[in-house]
Amino acid sequence: MEEKLKALGEKELARQAEVECRIFCCTSTACLASGSGETLQILEQGVQAQNYSKDDFTEIVQIGCMGLCSQGPLVRVETKDQSDFVYGQIDSELALQILAKHLPTNSHSTTLVSKPDDADLEQLRSNIKAARKKRGLVHRIISPDLPFFSNQIRIVLRETGQLNPESLPDYLAHNGYKALYKVLQTMEPEQVCDEILQSGLRGRGGAGFPTGQKWNFAREAKVDTKYVIANCDEGDPGAYMDRTIMEFNPHCVLEGLMIAGYATGASSGYLYIRAEYPIAIDRIKKAIRDARRKGIIGKSVMGTDFIFNPDIRIGAGAFVCGEETALIRSIEGMRGMPRMRPPYPSTSGLWGKPTVINNVETLANVPSIIQNGARWYASIGTEESKGTKVFALTGQLTNTGLIEVPMGITLREIVYEIGGGVPGKAEFKAAQTGGPSGGCIPASHLDTPVDYESLQELGSIMGSGGLVIIDDTTSMPEFARFFMDFCVDESCGKCVPCRVGTVQIRALLDKLIAGHGEIEDIDRLERICHLVKNTSLCGLGQSAPNPVLSTLRFFREEYEDLVATEIASGGPDG
Amino acid sequence: MSEPDNKPGEGSNHSHPSGDERYNTVERTMKRFKYEKDALLEVLHTAQETFGYLSEDLLIYISNHLNVPMSQVYGVATFYHLFTFEPLGKHNCIICTGTACYVKGAMDLENSLSHQYDVEVGSTTADGLFSLATARCLGSCGIAPVVVMDGKVYGKVTPKSITATVKRILEESLQELMEVETG
Amino acid sequence: MGDMEVGMITLTIDGKTVRVPSGTSLLDAALSHEIDIPRLCFHPELSVSGGCRMCVVEVEGKEQPTVSCGLECQEGMVTNTNSEQLTKMRKDIIDLFVSDHPLDCVTCDKAGSCLLQKYAYEYGVKETSFTEIISRSLLQDDNPFFIRDHKYCILCGRCVRVCDEIVGAHAIDFAKRGFEANIATPFDGPMIDSSCVFCGNCVQVCPTAALMPVSRINRGREWELERISTVCGYCGVGCQIEYAVKDDEILYARSAGDPSVNGDFLCTKGRYGWDFVRNDDRLTQPLIRRDLAHELGITDEPWEAPTTSPLAVRRPKVDDYFVPVSWETAIDIVCTRFAEVVENHGPDAIMGLASARCTNEENYLFQKFFRAGIGTNNVDHCARL
Hints:
The complex is a heterotrimer.
Chain A: H1 2-18, E1 21-26, H2 29-49, E2 58-63, E3 75-79, E4 84-87, H3 92-102, H4 119-131, H5 147-150, H6 168-173, H7 178-186, H8 189-199, H9 211-220, E5 227-232, H10 241-248, H11 250-264, E6 268-273, H12 278-293, E7 309-314, H13 324-331, E8 355-359, H14 360-372, H15 374-378, E9 388-395, E10 401-406, H16 411-418, E11 428-433, E12 439-442, H17 452-457, E13 466-471, H18 476-490, H19 496-513, H20 519-535, H21 539-543, H22 546-568
Helix pairs in contact in A: 2-3, 2-4, 3-4, 7-11, 7-14, 8-9, 8-11, 10-11, 10-12, 11-14, 18-19, 18-22, 19-20, 20-22
Chain B: H1 22-32, H2 40-51, H3 56-66, H4 70-79, E1 91-96, H5 99-103, H6 106-116, E2 123-124, E3 130-135, E4 147-149, E5 152-154, H7 159-182
Parallel strand pairs in B: 1-3
Antiparallel strand pairs in B: 1-4, 2-3, 4-5
Chain C: E1 8-13, E2 16-21, H1 26-31, E3 56-59, E4 66-67, E5 78-80, H2 84-99, H3 115-122, E6 139-140, E7 146-149, H4 158-167, E8 173-175, E9 182-184, H5 201-205, E10 211-213, E11 226-231, E12 240-246, E13 249-255, H6 268-272, E14 287-289, H7 290-295, H8 318-321, E15 322-324, H9 327-345, E16 352-354, H10 360-374, E17 379-381
Parallel strand pairs in C: 1-5, 16-17
Antiparallel strand pairs in C: 1-2, 3-4, 3-5, 6-7, 7-10, 8-9, 11-12, 12-13, 14-15
């Protein structure tokens, strides 16, 4: 069985090597919104216009995120003679220049794919000819040596800009499913769990629980039916790492999930994907279909006696369903109200069975760890936080986009070397990690290493990877209020600290922001934040006050200034 | 109550008395999941997609056919914000209010559109032409602030640019409507 | 867990050594040893929710207090159910509850048996230290049995759990989410349109004034009511009922709370089917038919029984058909007549039909009269029909 897959991969690799020119156009949502749809159209039509059949000499591949979203639409060109260019901000005009520059001038193809008298294509041909003289493209080259790229270690995003997300052969050509094969042929479930444990991989959804340990709990349960679930309910506003992984490398997620299934003893798996990610849903569905057709999924995975059947479940607009027990409830067709823990899902989860729930990014790391070994993975990062982390670097920054950096890298490096600093005259004020569950890190702590423990010490969390840069035009109390509004909206309502507490916190913030607050209100705010943090039933409530507490810790004067406003403007005495 | 030819277990004889074919789509999802109660969310998804919103009748239908208590169907449907209970306007605008978009001024977009068309977020204009909603992060943070108008994503928008876009779309729509009526 | 021995484990609660079967929650362990832990959403006969957060306890080795209803006892566990920290925490939680609850205690019918009021008193929460923001305003007064006043609801969920787990009617469930969540009938419609069977168990388990019996509203304060324990007469289960009585009138019925029989639960008949007690149609004197009265010389006018059923006549008046007589006369007639029948036709020619609306004691006497007195087993009861 594996021979067939290997052959498929090699055949694809060989085919790709023969193509004169491969043009990769990013069609991830960000680039799509910047107009890459039009860019793609021009490229495809242009190839047609020049009488090239795509298979012979030129290939246009729709790929996923290359990371530098702020420079989108991104287009990459790879030619047979090994030259490799990445271009940014490619609109229809510049797309013509790409065609003019890179398409082979002599067509050896005898198949005419366009009618010679098609007026539009004729026009396109002459446009391409005219574009040959234009020089605009030279200014759009994005160097791979840019600090944005060179400071990254791309493991999960390693095939960025390469992989056709809708092609199983392409995944196989890039070492796809080799890890799964290795696991099935040479490792016992216990060994797999151990390997992941030794690697130091921790949950990338935010909690940072050691993945190997979680797998072991489930593996050790003496129950016949078990489940593995990929948590694709990326709800943090400002985070799109998981979306990108699912959209551009769906097979990698599947492979990770299947290895998790083998390691824990689960033959059924679910991918819980939020409804707001329709492209991801389609890509995963296609990946499952294609994998099933090639015997990678089903009754006999790769010819072995391992059974694995994954299915998709779609979320419906509830951030709380990213919480494990709420996610389980959702799959069971119920309201996503979390349950008390213990019992933990790995002991009693979906339909009461041992269930392992892993974040998409966590699972996407698994094939690499299996292939390259735990020691390799553990050599990256810090003592307690191993490996890399994908961040969605957004906000007031020159270079925004998706990055993958080794744990332990300082915030300064991320903001200035990768991010290119804050544009214009504005100053860096803070970096917000962990979304509505996290906190702000001010300029004074820019040299903080980015790892689980260091961020927690500062009152924030690693979170799922949203990293928002704020400049001095943002008011911290208002920023905190933004997150509290989110939590009020997303609270499930089961426990009183979160249901009522978040509303009260927001009310206090509103009062302060409107200038009607008293100095005692700040203490009141802190008190209720601690109450909600310490008495809430689930992670949502427990971390909802973090943005407020964090901004109080580092920017207390902004809150105090709000009180002073009232007094200064002649408000009521006392 | 049921027609004589609606024998249970015979293919799509569960057709709705109204004859509305869309119910068959919902039925198919129920069938795919073997009518198990766990499938409630999947069924609601299909229903929302097919009908555009979940009416009382539709929810009662689902409760009866999936054998889930009506209170539970209602409780589940109202928990998830993806499900709506009123028909949407002809044109839909979703403003992303994720962190990156917020930082880049999503609230200004919300205020200007809401003001311009006299419509609250989460509702539809009186003439049923335009619905305004917000979403908590569409995952396009690299091009914040983001607005999705009739399914098309617009990035790096300003209050001015989005008002102009919406105005254009609505005017074109009204124009078409007039042409249909007079033509 | 299936083949593990259910052994006993030992732990310490408030310095007291306690032994419980493994698998017991800390809350259950405490309550079964007369250690009180405050709780709002917990109910001994329902599944655990964990939403009110009041039952927090301190556990040695754990940094933060944990809710005891969801905490499984471990061998050697050392816990405190009371401390300065816990008191402060519980007070703050009540403060939060109270911020979303109209403080109408002065005229509220639930005063005296309201759990929120109880804890507000115990923890000294006179009013909220936060801003009063009331989330729900829906008032449903759509059936003759109970009122649903959502502004007093604390979302403990007991009513939902009772309806799902004990009754199986599934009439209500949580709807929406967060601060706007409420306990809803489908589409927040009237109770009669839901699958409610009007058993009123939700009313009994409700800790606040959110669910109140209609018969009780504005009729008296909880502490003014006399509680009379009795056994329900309607069926063979014999549920323990407690009537709340004021000025010789029943205001409402609830279970007397005997877990061995019916716990906190009743059915609709036991809970609401007592209105016959004071009904105007109830007979207060023995009556005999007019033709018999004439025959016996009690009345002068002759009387022919109508050939059509009296029920064919709208609302037949008792006076048209019957004449009131004294108890002595009535018993005399019955005894004489029954004796004749027994002598001429045997005891089995007589049957007795008892009623659920008689007390159990009355029914006992009734059947004894038939079996031992008359000598027949022909005795039946309306419940069997």
